[in-house]
Specification:
The protein is α+β, with helices and mostly antiparallel strands. The chain is built from two helices and seven strands. It has a three-stranded mixed β-sheet, covered by helices on one side. Strand 3 (41-42) and strand 4 (49-50) form a beta hairpin. The protein is globular. The two termini are 28 Å apart. The structure holds FE2/S2 (inorganic) cluster. Pfam families: Fer2_4. Residues 82-125 are annotated as: Disordered. Residues 92-116 have a biased composition (Low complexity).
Length: 125
């Protein structure tokens, strides 16, 4: 893997106290993933990690708090300089529970459909 210098117009976002770089045009989810962060929340039941799954706004697996606003889909939120990402904002739990229920249902449905279409392989969701 080659080291790539950050572009001068690189954004800087903060996730759990760490700076996450992003380039214009990236989504929050893409920037987190590019930074090696594969999950940013856990399911209420079982504590299973969640991050990007569909990447196109359908499954709700990627829910994240952005600047104190809970339940944003990381795959749809454009990266921007100075965004605060993550679960350290007050009042997130209630919204996260609602989002998890929607996300788990949608993710399970998407996984089941993918498994049916791809000969039985169901990605872990
Ligand atoms: S990864 Fe964002 S909605 Fe599926």
């Amino acid at each position: 893997m080659t080291h790539r210098e950050p572009r001068p117009d690189t954004y800087r976002m903060v996730f759990r106290g760490a700076v996450v770089p992003a380039e214009p045009g990236q989504s929050v989810g893409a920037a987190l993933t590019a930074a090696g962060i594969r999950d940013w929340r856990v399911t209420r039941k079982g504590g299973r990690p969640r991050g990007l799954f569909c990447g196109i706004g359908i499954c709700f697996d990627c829910l994240i708090t952005v600047d104190g606003v809970p339940d944003r889909r990381a795959c749809l939120v454009p990266a921007a300089d100075g965004l605060r990402l993550g679960d350290d904002e007050p009042g997130e739990q209630a919204g996260e529970q609602a989002g998890e229920q929607a996300g788990e249902q949608a993710g399970e449905q998407a996984g089941e459909q993918a498994g049916e279409q791809e000969g039985g392989h169901v990605p872990s969701v």
